[in-house]
Amino acid sequence: MIAEGTRWHRLQDARIVTLSEGALLKLKVGGRAMVIIRHQGRLHAMADHCPHQDRALSGGWVENGHVVCPWHRIHFDLATGKAKHGVCSNVEVFAMKEDERGPSVGIPYTTLRIFGWDLW
Ligand code: FES
What is the pLDDT of residues 22-68, one digit of tens each? Predict the structure, then answer.
């Protein structure tokens, strides 16, 4: 049976603790290039990939709850990844959770599940 789930990856980079409001931190998480952003005290995770012309978002900045791509300045909603005004595809965003051991990013996956075992 095809099954979907989320694998949680703990962020162990010490720079997370001191990440300032509105700053973008480029990280590899679970083999995926991401930017971690602190906005209004909460952490967000977004693919470090602008769908407009396949360039990195990590040189961008935060403006009114959106990450602004440094290349052509398309704005992407921090929470949903939605491109402002629908001018291009959306950016993939990832779930975040924090507990006493620190923040984690959730990466969705699809697998084949047999007798309760995920094959990958
Ligand atoms: S590459 Fe990001 S807006 Fe064009």
Answer: 999 999 999 999 999 999 989 999 999 999 999 999 999 999 999 99
Look up residue 64 and give its two tokens.
């009114």
What pTM, to 2 d.p., does this model score?
Answer: 0.89
Question: DSSP assignment of 43-103, as one string?
Answer: EEEEES-BTTTTB-STT-EEETTEEEPTTT--EEETTT-PBGGG-SPPPPEEEEEEETTEE
Please report the domains of the chain, with CATH numbers, ordered by start residue.
Answer: 2-118 (2.102.10.10)
Q: Is the CB of 27 under 6 A from ligand 1?
A: no
Residue 91 Cβ inside 6 Å of ligand 1? The answer reads no
Q: pLDDT at position 93, please?
A: 98
